[in-house]
Amino acid sequence: MELNGRRILLCNCEKTMNLDGKALAKACGADGTPDIASQLCRAQIDNFRSEIARGGRVIVACTQEAPLFHEIAGEIEGGAALGAVNIRETAGWSDDGAAATPKIAALLAEAAVEIPPTPVVTMESGGVCLVYGTDEAAVAAARQLAARLDVTLLLSRPGEVMPPRAMDVPVFRGTIASAKGHLGAFEIAVDDYAPASVSARSWLEFEAPRDGAVSKCDLILDLTGGAPLFPAGERVDGYFRPDPGNPALVQKALFDLSDMVGEFEKPRYVKFTADLCTHSRSMKTGCTRCLDVCPVSAIVPDGDHVAIDPFLCGGCGGCNSVCPTGAARYDMPPAEALFARLREMLSTYTQAGGKDAVLLLHDDRHGADVIHAMARHGRGLPANVLPFAVNEVTMVSFDVLSCALGWGAAAVRILAGAERRDELSGLAQQVGLAEAAMSGLGYGSGRVSVIDETDPDAVERVLWDDKAPEAPTAGSFLAMGGKRAVTGLALAHLHDVAPAPIDMVTLPGGAPFGRIVVEDAGCTLCLACVGACPTGALKDNPDKPHLGFEELACVQCGLCRSTCPESVITLEPRLAFTPEARGAVTLKEEEPFECVRCGKPFGTRSSIERIVAQLAGKHPMFAEGHMAERIKMCDDCRVIDQFEAGDDPFRGPDRPKPRTTDDDLREREEEIEAARAKLLAERAREETGEG
Predict the structure, then answer these.
(1) Could you tell me the pLDDT band of residue 648, with boundaries at 50, 70 and 90?
(2) Which residue, 519, 511, 518, is CA-closest to 556?
(3) CA distance 124 to 239
(4) Is 245 exposed, middle or buried (0-12, 13-18, 19+ CB in 10 A)?
(5) 3-state secondary structure (DSSP) of residue 656
(6) Quick one: average pLDDT of 236-240?
(7) In Å, how far are 553, 580, 587, 590, 638 from 569, measured between CA atoms?
(8) What is the CA radius of gyration of the chain?
(9) CB of 533 within 8 A of CB of 560?
(10) How far is residue 21's CA from residue 33's CA, in Å, rounded to a whole number?
(11) Are 498 and 443 contacting, i.e. CB atoms less than 8 angstroms apart?
(12) Which stretch of 111-115, 485-489, 591-595, 626-630 has the lowest confidence by average pLDDT?
């Protein structure tokens, strides 16, 4: 059977599953009746080799024996590219196995969707390892690692610790005050730092301590058993913190650490587009959603947007979940591939005759293990429960939930029992948003929920007792465009087929959809909000004073509210389906005020009249009537009138005339002439006898 250019190899696993090849081919839209093996991994392995030798692309419907199949495929030069899909634990091994044909068809169709590779970042470790502990167990661990790594031992407030017979590992005392970094680039600050004394006899002794010591290393083994050095430390690459009371976990950490020398690749989990970020404008803070949910502090403010450290990012996807614009998008896999998988699964299930699908979102670790245990020791998954694996359930966002419901899922259940409670806040917001939207449209509550259980029996009870409501009419829309565009397509379809298609749904506070309300009387149309709006939801008009608004573009970041000098803007979270909400509307508009001298339009009439009322006759610069008229003039005319009137309030006394050399020479000539005249007058008096 061939799907999307991939040949599907089916096996009923020694007839423990009831697979109807003809029905599956019809459900998947494939021609003919596929062969169904019963022991493809053993007695019929030559059939598998023949298919691989044909080249192309092959998907084998078995994950248990996938290592064997990949080994054989690797031995065949020019053989087919191989993938695997699990239809046994997820569908065939179930009390509903006989009714699982639509579900198996959906799983096969999803597996045939091509997934692009995830970009990676490279980290380098030179093997410099810090062992941080309190007692002899840390000493033993450090000495064990020393054969493979460059180890330093740091003991925090040690008690009576016997000195090692040979100091093959440097030993220091100290308590780590702070730590930052990641694999290959850790930096720690240590207080009470002191090297071990070489003359210690019975117990380790140390020299005089000091605070503020700084050190760098590539790896950290934390055996203190205390608080982790990093928030969500289990997500920090290169930081190992096993329970020191569990020898098996300690040995596993030592085993893993011993090989951590060289270059290592990790996925670049998040694709960040700074132009879409609405964090800040003009030193005023707007959206902080991703900063609030990142458990490892890999996201920091960086001017008008944020910066995401790909080396520190642990891949939880919380930023993707809450980002209102799609600036932070989970890239494992890319959103386009995830939506393609989801649409293919749900549409195939519906076309194959499946009813009231319940989409079970789970990760490939805890979730897959729970499903595995249910299939082997319990009832398995119900036939209408479609398991959909994602890298982290905490990356699930409102666009994913709305598309799943828009493509015909009756309900969405998110298996999140293994997640830390403090990492679920972003997911809880998205679930609340989806519930508010579905309830508001008349679909009722309970369409989207989180299964916060780790026990397979408890998960099984929840799923089998789940009475899924009737599914919405499935839409055929494509997930095209950015995050908000995709969400808008799904919501538009859900509104069109809703039991109660009301035009406005109230959303909880903090939701990234809604409008702004402007107090008309207080708004002066200064348009500071337009300059602050990062998404272009607020608009002006170059020809006249005008404040426009486009609701589809508003993400409720609050920058307009914090920027408004009059404090007349409020946010109103909602989903609106009216024609007005899909286009630009006018919030306030005025005729411009015309200059009383030249007639040129400038400012807004309300602003000028307000300034006149506040300043005319009250301020010294506008105390008299002709002076107050200047408020009603444009910039040019105001200056001209000021100089023509000669009543410049800033005018001082006339400046003294600057002296020049000519002035000095002239004064000297005048002094000489005066002296000569005086001398001549005296001589004249002498000659006449008057002296």
Answers:
(1) low
(2) 511
(3) 14
(4) exposed
(5) coil
(6) 97
(7) 17, 19, 11, 18, 33
(8) 39
(9) yes
(10) 6
(11) yes
(12) 626-630
Distances 132 to 126, 159, 164, 230, 486 between C-alpha atoms, Å? 18, 14, 16, 14, 48
Q: Specify the long-range contacts of residues 280-283, CB closer than 8 Å, at least 24 apart.
A: 280/304, 280/305, 280/559, 281/531, 281/532, 281/534, 281/559, 281/563, 282/531, 282/532, 282/563
Is residue 432 within 8 A of residue 512, CB to CB? The reply is no
β-strand pairing of 2-3 with 299-302: unpaired
Contact in structure between 253 and 242 (CB atoms under 8 Å): yes
Strand ranges for 563-648 from DSSP E: 569-576, 584-589, 592-594, 601-604
pLDDT band at 645 (very low <50, low <70, confident <90, very high): confident
Q: Where are the alpha helices (DSSP H) in 446-482?
A: 456-465
Please say if the pLDDT value at position 535 is more than 90: yes
Task: Dump pLDDT digits (tens) for 63-84.
Answer: 999 999 999 999 999 999 999 9
Rounded Cα distance between 352 and 354, Å, is: 6
- The identity of residue 223, as a single letter, is L
Let me know if 236 is exposed, middle or buried by CB neighbors in 10 A (0-12, 13-18, 19+): buried
Q: Spell out the residues 6+ positions from residue 691 whose beta carbon is closer than 8 angstroms to its own.
A: 682, 685
CA distance 130 to 154: 7
Taking the C-alpha atoms of residue 679 and residue 527, their distance in angstroms, rounded to an integer, is 81
Q: What is the amino acid identity at position 569? A: I
The DSSP H or E segment spanning 503 is none
**The pTM is what?**
0.88
429-452 pLDDT, tens digit per residue, is: 999 999 999 999 999 999 999 999
Fill in the DSSP letter of residue 573. Answer: E
Structure confidence at residue 588 (pLDDT): 93
Q: Residue 572: phi, psi to the nearest 5?
A: -130, 95
Residue pointed to by tokens 């100091």? 167
Residue 203 C-alpha from the chain's centroid: 51
| Residue 80 Cα distances to 58, 75, 238, 422, angstroms | 6, 11, 36, 44
DSSP 353-391: T--SEEEEEEETTHHHHHHHHHHHHS----TTEEEEEES
DSSP secondary-structure letter at 536?
S
3-state secondary structure of 600: coil
Q: What is the pLDDT of residues 354-405, one digit of tens each?
A: 999 999 999 999 999 999 999 999 999 999 999 999 999 999 999 999 999 9
Each residue's pLDDT tens digit, 207-225: 999 999 999 999 999 999 9
What letter represents residue 303's amino acid?
G
Q: What are residue 274's phi and psi, to 5 degrees?
A: -60, -35
More confident residue, 595 or 628: 595
Residue 652 tokens, joined: 């001082």
Query: For the CA atoms of 671, 677, 683, 688, what is the dihedral angle to 10 degrees?
Result: -150
The answer for residues whose C-beta is within 8 angstroms of residue 473's C-beta and 6 or more apart is 408, 497
